[in-house]
Write the structure tokens for this entry.
Amino acid sequence: MNLWTNSIRNINRLRLGARAAMGVAICLPFLVASPSLAQSWSSSKSVQIDQIIAHFRELNGTDEATLPSMSVSIGMEGRLVAAKGYGASDGRPVDGHTLYEIGSITKQFTAAVALEMIKNGAVSTRSGKKLDLATPLVAVFDDSSFWKAQPWLTVGRLLTMRSNLPNFTRRPPTGTDPWQPIDADTLFQDIENQPPSTVSDDFDYSNTNYFLIAELMERCRLPGEAQPETYHELLRKRIFEPAGMVETRFIDDADAHFDPDASVLPAEPVSAALKEQAAVWARPDYGRRRRPAFTNPDWLKGSADAVSSAVDLFAWDKALMDPKIVPPDIRDTMLAAQARVSPMIYYGMGWFYEEKDDAAVYSHSGAVPGYTSFNEIVRQKDGHWFSITILSNSDQLDGLDDLANSIAYILAM
């Protein structure tokens, strides 16, 4: 196995729901070709990708009934060249528009909107102070002894996973039930009741960081607004709608759970275009677990609570690379090497980052009960780029990074 495969798999173990690596994985050497890469998409590449996805599914199932369904989108230079499904859910074929919970890929949206709020001059409703990456959390939340004891805890440390705050999805608050809904206030109060953290610049992956970013966003007001907007309102208005992500929503929307008897329409507010089509959900596969935890709001608020499709995630990748939607300075801050994860890999804000050959590779996986996902952008030094999104309705999968690696190899040929 090459460095690319090993390093990404190690990162994946840090994420919610990460599992031990499988003994067998698809592994082709990752390399990025010359600038001609890729402006070419061909039927031959499509066939090769279909073959490696079929092989990957066979490695993860014993027969047709147990093969995981998957949806994949591939973009080149902002053009969607492939969006298709593999397999079926409850007898209905999946496709590029099938809905899946996407887990920690949600962090990319949360980070983008938090940075946009900073850029647009948001102020704390508690202190009136203007928000920036260096703003201490005590200026936004409250003056309890917990925040006062940690003036070094800043907005930037949350976004880059350097807060040293414990992950409450690893150790739920005492007296709470991970199998039941929980309100955000209860989670927030439990954080404040913890012993203060010690100052550290080390990377430490924790969903608590992005939960607090979502809470912070709801306690800051943008110029011209009478009061803060909710985290969901902010993401819908500033990411989903401008990017044309009409299928994306949240797990606590009124209908945001798999319905085996009918196609599902989203809760308000939604675009007229989405109302005209029923969205098919992929049934979650929990493996042998009968009672999956952390499936209810607000356990994953800010960190892993979005639902999307392969087509919509291509639209997000395109929006991130398009300066007309996500300003270049915000994109570059998200993708920059902020916190060292390993000798070769860094965390930015919502993205892992690594230099490989003549390209920068940005990626993030997601794993929540019933679903596994992976989103990747490969950007060459000459500016050419392509994206790969893989969504699955099984939480027993490992190696989506290997699969994306293999697809990238084919795209680069």
Notes: Confidence is low (pLDDT under 50) at residues 1-38, 257-278.
